Amino acid sequence: MDIEVIGRIRPSARGEGHHSLNISGNHRITSSDGQSYSFQPLFRQDATNYDVYAKVLEPLLDLFLAGFNVSLLLFGETESGKSYTMAGDSLNKAGIVPLAIDGCFNKLLDLQDKPREEGGLRDAHRRGKDDLELKMSMYEIYNEIIKDLLTENQQRGSLPIKETAQLGPHLPGLNQIQVFNAAEATNYFRQGWGRRTDVVTDFGPALGYSAAVFQLELSMVTGGSPLPNRSILQVVRLPGAEKLAEDPTKLRMREGPSLNKSLTAFGQLVTELANTRHADRVINYTDSKLTHLMMDALGTNAKTRVLCHLPPHCDQYRLSVMLRSCAQLSQVKNFPILNDHLAQGLVCQFRARILSLQEQLGYEEGHGRALQLHEMRDELKKLTTDNLQLRDKNERLYQKVEQLQSKLNQMAGSRTDLSSKLIFSEEEKLQVSKALVDLQIENNRIQEDYEAANFELKNKVLTLENELMEVTLQKDKLSRDLRSTHDRLRTSEKDHKELADEYIILKTNYLALTKEHDREKARNEELGIELLNLVNATSHGRPVQGELTAEINRLRHVVSRLSTHKPQDIYLGAEEDRQQMEKNLFGERERMEEDRRRMKAQYEEDQDKLEGNLKKLRRELQEAQAQAREAQRKAGETAAKLIMAEGKQRQLEIEHSKAQQQFKDMNSEYRTRLIRYVQDIGEYIDTSAGTAPPNQRQLKDMRRYIDAMIADTKQAYKAREEQLSQAAKTYKKQAKQMANKHEQLLIAYSQLREQVLAGGRSLDIDLGLADVDLQLSDGERELHAAQTVELNRLRRALQDARAEAERAAARPKNVTIQEPPRKGPTDWSSVRKQLREFALNTQQELETDNARMKTKVSVLESQLSEAQDYIDKHLVRYKQEIVRLRKLLGQEPGTRQGSAGPYLDSEPEFYPRRRGHNRANTSS
């Protein structure tokens, strides 16, 4: 059963902001170098301790009560929230350990209330509390010193570790307290948590280097078993994992051999367990006290979960190491079993057998008698002292070799410095490009603002022009109305004058008629007087009455005709003339009004058409301006995007160069470590040859392991060689492409220049430099040397062909020669182009093959010379050192023990070759 790895992101402190981790949809966290791991599940920053307890630790409590060993490891950097997860900070925010204590007692109470037939502890004939015993212990490991946290006044010194058949690795002096309720156990836990080592050293707080272990041991009778099951619950707060990202050797030299021993041994143990998943593996757990006491939690009899704590803002290299460690932890395979009395007996038997075999290792097979235990210990101490002395000498030799290697690395690091300077300059260039992009964006914004303001001003100008045009049109309209009004006024005045003349004439006629009427009236009065006289005379002459009556009637008739008919006829005639004149005048006026209305309607129609055309033109102008602004905006956006894309491309190129440099450094370090491992193994075999002969299985495993490391070293060299070869090919390809493009541009330039010169016109323009002045320099001409030779050969062949054609044309006429069709300038230019393309392609292939062969030959020559130099200089000294070390071990020169002689004799020849090859590759 593999170890389950769960992730938790620490909530951000005040001022930290949101986390900067790269999290994908399936809870996968990825670092900047590509290392990733998918946590199942991943607790975000809003998750509480109870959420973690409910999903992580509470399922383990059920297995713990059922009789299985369970463990929870709190893994992460310093100040990543491990202590908060384990203990909390107050009663309201309790950690997972107080919650686990409370949950464990609640589950035990539920089991005591159930009958045994249902899986509980209650029996009808005896009490359930006699079948149950729960003990609690708590200790701390700091600087390889074990401290009991449940003892108030503990003496100075570390608790010893003892391994027995019944209990395995345990602490015999550890205080184990039997607890009966959750409050009591929580109180003990709080007291122990407060007794941890909380001091500040030269290397930081001691809490970052210490490991705290909380343990519950349960003995409980379940089911029909006569003996109790024994299970253990462990919650381990590991030291800060940021030290895994550093070199263990440098860390040991800087901070001492035991301060980080627990963490480094834990990392090595996880790596070994992840690489060997089969059940017959043999793992050493005694490198540190922490790994020795965690034997059941890692790789053996326990159900284990790891809670990885991640800070919201983490260094990318540390994050990569953390994710790699989580991936290795997830590959560790445990074998948890039910710890009933049968399994406990079987495990005890195996432990007793192992302890017996360990004690029998002190017996010597050759002499046939057993040494005493104290004699074996003295011999072991003596061998240990000798081994330490040899290791000290070996370390001094290693220091000398490291000094030489450091000098070599400094020589090779100059290129790295140049690369870093180049990267720095590229970064500065990228910053300048970014600033240029910002300025371009600001310029585009200012230009857009200017265009908008210009557009508004143009709109205002167009509005004012429109208003001016409308006022002008209205003025013209009013002027036309005024002119028409003046015309009508003049016409009216003329008509008024004519009417006045007519009136005067009519008035004159009327006065004449009135005078005539007065005359006739006076005459009539005279006739009346005369008639009265006649009437008076009638009374005197009756006889003449009839005649007078007739005369009177005749006079009356004449008077009435003169006084009545004649003025009436004149008046009627004048009235008819007046009416006819008025009719003529009003008809002319109506006709003029009708013309005026028609002209006004025509004018208004023309005015409406003009306004419609103006509106249409204004709308089209606005649309055209909007389209122009949109096109300009899109052009600005496209330019900004192009600049940003170029900046991103440069940034990607810089990141690619950084990644290649980092890959080169890691590959070099990996090769150096592999060679160092092979040397350490060889020296270990040399030093251990005199103590005990190795068996065939160990030799085979060692040979297979060394062959695998040699293959990895070869693969690393091959990868580096392929990387350099690929970079050289890429550079050559780019140089060839640039040279080809330059040649094509030069050809096009010469053709255009010839066309301009062949035009025969005197142009007042500068044609620029000639194509001869634009040729490549001497350093750039090496790539096209063979190509130029080939082109010259083809040109000479072309000249020879032309001379042959001229000689053939000069022969006698009786000799008939079929001449080929003449080619014009276009055909000759096409022929030149084809010849140039053929020569260019041929030259590219030849130069590619030549560059590849030269690269391989130079690399092989440098490797061969350096390897030969190293062999000549250092082989003799290396063999003398091996002979001296063998003499110190009590062996004769040239002799071996056991069956490993041929294999070990071949080692001195192997190391110098690999070292020389490493130097050759480093120099290349």
UniProtKB/TrEMBL annotation:
GO terms for cellular component: cytoplasm. One of its GO terms (biological process) is microtubule-based movement. The keyword Plastid does not apply. Signal peptide: none annotated. It holds the Pfam family DUF4472. GO terms for molecular function: ATP binding; microtubule binding; microtubule motor activity. ATP binds at G76, E77, T78, E79, S80, G81, K82, S83. It comes from the Eukaryota. Residues 373-481, 582-669, 714-755 form a coiled coil. Belongs to the TRAFAC class myosin-kinesin ATPase superfamily. Kinesin family. This is CENPE protein.
